[in-house]
């Protein structure tokens, strides 16, 4: 099998159900999701040991869901079935809540960084936000875009933020606070052990 087809040599690409220019907004949206997926894969290579098995499981599931969401954005068929539904959003919320039980208290904005894996997860978080912005722009330009993809990306950025913090915490690395930040997050009462 040859990997190159030469069908894109004139600046167009295939969607599910049609062809568009490679700079089409739809291609930008699912291409940004593809970029995000690659950074999640990079983060996975930086997480070693049993202490991260739950996060690695989450990230592998997320990679598959991102393929589903990208495929949904690439689908322009008149009759379409979307792969991404509400269930993964609920799972992300459950995982965020579970990880937050473990997270150190947070009062101020933090600077992305700490361990290599946490820094990569922060990069993935910012790409997620960009993918969400492009998806919203696409939703405003076309009426055939599943809104679930945007909601999923919104929740995913929250998950990646929390996961980055947990990775650092499990490695014994403190969050580096943005020194000029006011206290912007409410702290809860001391966590019960």
TrEMBL record:
EC numbers for this chain: 2.5.1.17
Keyword set, alphabetical order: ATP-binding, Cobalamin biosynthesis, Nucleotide-binding, Transferase
Superkingdom of origin organism: Bacteria
Entries under Pfam families matching the protein: Cob_adeno_trans (PF01923)
Pathway membership, UniProt: Cofactor biosynthesis; adenosylcobalamin biosynthesis; adenosylcobalamin from cob(II)yrinate a,c-diamide: step 2/7
Domain Cobalamin adenosyltransferase-like, residue spans: 3-166
Reactions catalysed: 2 cob(II)yrinate a,c diamide + reduced [electron-transfer flavoprotein] + 2 ATP = 2 adenosylcob(III)yrinate a,c-diamide + 2 triphosphate + oxidized [electron-transfer flavoprotein] + 3 H(+); 2 cob(II)alamin + reduced [electron-transfer flavoprotein] + 2 ATP = 2 adenosylcob(III)alamin + 2 triphosphate + oxidized [electron-transfer flavoprotein] + 3 H(+)
Keyword Transferase: yes
Keyword check for NAD: no
One of the protein's GO biological processes: cobalamin biosynthetic process
First-tier enzyme category under EC: transferase
Molecular function via GO: ATP binding; corrinoid adenosyltransferase activity
SUPFAM superfamilies: Cobalamin adenosyltransferase-like
Complex and partners: Homotrimer.
Protein family membership: Belongs to the Cob(I)alamin adenosyltransferase family.
Protein name as catalogued: Corrinoid adenosyltransferase
Organism: Sporosarcina newyorkensis 2681
């Amino acid at each position: 099998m040859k990997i190159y087809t030469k069908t894109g040599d004139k600046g167009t690409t295939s969607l599910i159900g049609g062809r568009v220019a490679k700079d089409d907004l739809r291609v930008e949206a699912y291409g940004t999701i593809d970029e995000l997926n690659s950074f999640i894969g990079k983060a996975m290579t930086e997480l070693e040991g049993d202490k991260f098995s739950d996060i690695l499981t989450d990230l592998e599931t997320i990679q598959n869901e991102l393929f589903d969401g990208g495929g949904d954005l690439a689908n322009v068929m008149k009759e379409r079935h979307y792969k991404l539904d509400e269930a993964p959003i609920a799972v992300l919320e459950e995982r965020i809540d579970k990880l937050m039980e473990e997270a150190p208290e947070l009062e101020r904005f933090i600077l992305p960084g700490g361990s290599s894996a946490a820094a990569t997860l922060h990069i993935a978080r910012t790409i997620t936000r960009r993918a969400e912005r492009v998806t919203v722009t696409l939703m405003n330009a076309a009426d055939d875009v599943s809104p679930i993809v945007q909601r999923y990306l919104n929740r995913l950025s929250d998950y990646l933020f929390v996961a980055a913090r947990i990775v650092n915490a499990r490695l014994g690395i403190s969050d580096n606070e943005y020194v000029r930040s006011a206290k912007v997050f409410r702290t809860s009462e001391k966590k019960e052990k």
